[in-house]
Specification:
CATH topology of one domain: Beta-Lactamase
Shape: rod-shaped
Mean pLDDT: 77
Low-confidence stretches: 64-68, 85-119
Radius of gyration: 50 Å
Strand order of the largest sheet: 4-3-7-6-5
CATH class of one domain: Alpha Beta
Helix content: 40-55%
Structural class: alpha+beta
Number of helices: 9
Number of strands: 14
Order of helices and strands: HHEEEEHEEEHHHEHEEHEEHEE
């Protein structure tokens, strides 16, 4: 593989790598957004659940008969709860928690052998005078939890009969705290606060979320990686084939079996394009040789005959004949040069088309009369079914005449003895069929008859000029808002159809 092919392939692979990276970044960004949203949801749900659990424990510690227990009784109840068997070590109980309609307090429906919520870590009370009584301290003495025992800002709200939830930061940890009122003889006498650190409880779900995000990201990257590899291999071959065609090699090696339907369509289209380019390149080489021959022949003939007359090699009537042949060859050469100029002008869009009223029926009649008096058309009979009334269109009479002369001249070169012209008029469209009884167009030549410089097979190309007649005729038809097509052909004859736009005079 050449350096150009390596560069082209490298650029293609780099482009695929570029987009693969972008896809991975988009995937990672989307997963991060989902992870953040899930993390927020987990945080809110976990906090709510812990608050519900703390509120349940606080209600269990409060005297259910309306009698306010002393701090020693709180301690005894805590000790009884800690001594219960089957106490869970995890955060979320399997028991259902619900509100009791009669007491408006939380209770559990768990059976005697089912797990219960874990014991709170810190419990203290604050009476109406602001005196703080610590019921249970945090077991880890290395952490200073004194901030938990300050009089909370929500103290008055609890004494007013509200259950208060708040957060406290202690030693770089977040603690959740619930405050509930304690009643004595129907009157609130103190506030009970229960606190629990939440960081250890939420770290597990966060770790699981991070693990799942990492696994999904890795799986997505692997999928993209293997898919890109499957795409890169055939695209490398297509890129190498494109570079091969650019260097003039029209038989590239392309992948044979590709499972991806889109890639298979691309490869098939590329293979068809390569075959067409190869055929057109071969055609171009043949046509270039033919055009060179057609231009060189009259020049050589003119030069030789004029030199013979100039050097007195021929004299008299023979010299006159040589000069006449040279004159005819010069006219043929002029016609070929004019065809080249016309073709270049039309392809560049620089050929002006006059927009003037033209009676198409009258124009065709004039062309037929002009050709009928020429010796080369003496063996051709014209059968023109022209409308009696004028058929008007806006166009260039000279260019339309040139188009019909080209079509009639092609029929003459095909050894036709009959030329039939018929009209069809449909609303604003005019269709003119030019039918001859010539030898027709070979099947191998039919797809290329409107190609520039195409003159048919080598045997038929002799005397066919530059192969621009039909090309220029179709360009002229397009310039007049119409088209020229090969309607049908066979060994019994050929029919061309010219369609134009009709207009009112």
């Amino acid at each position: 593989m050449s350096s150009k092919q390596n560069d082209y392939t490298t650029n293609t692979v780099s482009m695929l790598t570029y987009w693969t990276r972008r896809y991975v970044l988009v995937l990672l960004g989307s997963l991060l957004l989902l992870a953040v949203a899930a993390g927020i949801w987990i945080r809110i749900s976990t906090y709510d659940h812990i608050y519900d659990m703390l509120e349940l424990r606080a209600e269990q510690l409060v005297d259910l008969n309306g009698q306010a227990p002393e701090e020693s009784e709180f301690s005894n109840r805590l000790r009884q709860m800690e001594e219960r068997p089957h106490e869970p070590k995890h955060l979320f109980p399997e028991a259902d928690i619900k509100k009791d309609d009669s007491s408006n307090r939380l209770e559990t429906e768990a059976g005697p052998h089912e797990p219960r919520p874990p014991i709170p870590d810190v419990v203290h009370t604050v009476d109406t005078a602001g005196n703080i009584k610590i019921i249970k301290k945090y077991e880890n003495e290395a952490i200073d939890t004194s901030a938990l025992f300050a009089v909370p800002p929500s103290y008055q709200n609890v004494l007013a009969g509200e259950n208060v939830r708040d957060q406290v930061n202690v030693a770089s940890q977040t603690w959740l705290r619930i405050g509930v009122p304690v009643y004595q003889d129907g009157t609130i006498c103190k506030a009970l606060y229960i606190s629990m650190p939440v960081d250890n409880q939420i770290r597990g779900p966060y770790g699981l979320l991070a693990l799942l995000t990492g696994i999904i990201t890795l799986a997505g990257w692997l999928v993209l990686y293997f898919l890109s590899r499957r795409l890169i291999h055939p695209l490398r071959e297509v890129a190498a084939a494109a570079q091969s065609i650019a260097e003039g090699k029209y038989d590239p090696v392309l992948p044979q079996e590709v499972k991806e339907r889109e890639l298979q369509q691309l490869i098939e289209s590329f293979r068809y394009m390569a075959a067409q380019l190869k055929q057109l390149e071969q055609l171009r080489s043949v046509l270039l040789a033919g055009v060179s021959h057609e231009l060189r022949t009259p020049i050589t003939s003119i030069r030789g005959m004029i030199q013979a007359v100039h050097n007195k090699i021929v004299t008299g009537a023979k010299a006159e004949e040589f000069l006449q042949i040279s004159w005819n060859e010069a006219k043929r050469l002029q016609q070929m040069v004019e065809e080249l100029l016309d073709f270049s002008s039309f392809e560049a869009g620089a050929a002006p088309i006059k927009g003037e009223p033209v009676n198409l029926s009258s124009l065709i009649s004039e062309v037929i009369h002009q050709l009928s008096v020429l010796p080369e058309f003496s063996n051709i009979r014209f059968d023109a079914a022209l409308p009696a009334e004028p058929v008007w269109l806006n166009g260039d009479a000279g260019r339309l005449r040139q188009m019909f002369l080209n079509l009639f001249d092609n029929s003459k070169k095909a050894a036709a003895t009959l030329l039939r012209i018929t009209f069809q008029i449909h609303d604003h469209r005019i269709m003119v069929d030019i039918e001859d009884n010539g030898k027709g167009i070979e099947a191998t030549d039919q797809p290329f008859i409107f190609e520039r410089f195409y003159r048919g097979s080598a045997r038929q190309a002799i005397g066919r000029g530059l192969g621009l007649g039909l090309t220029i005729s179709r360009l002229l038809a397009h310039a007049h808002g119409g088209d020229l097509v090969l309607l049908r052909t066979s060994p019994a004859g050929t029919t061309f159809r010219l369609s134009l736009t009709r207009s009112l005079k």
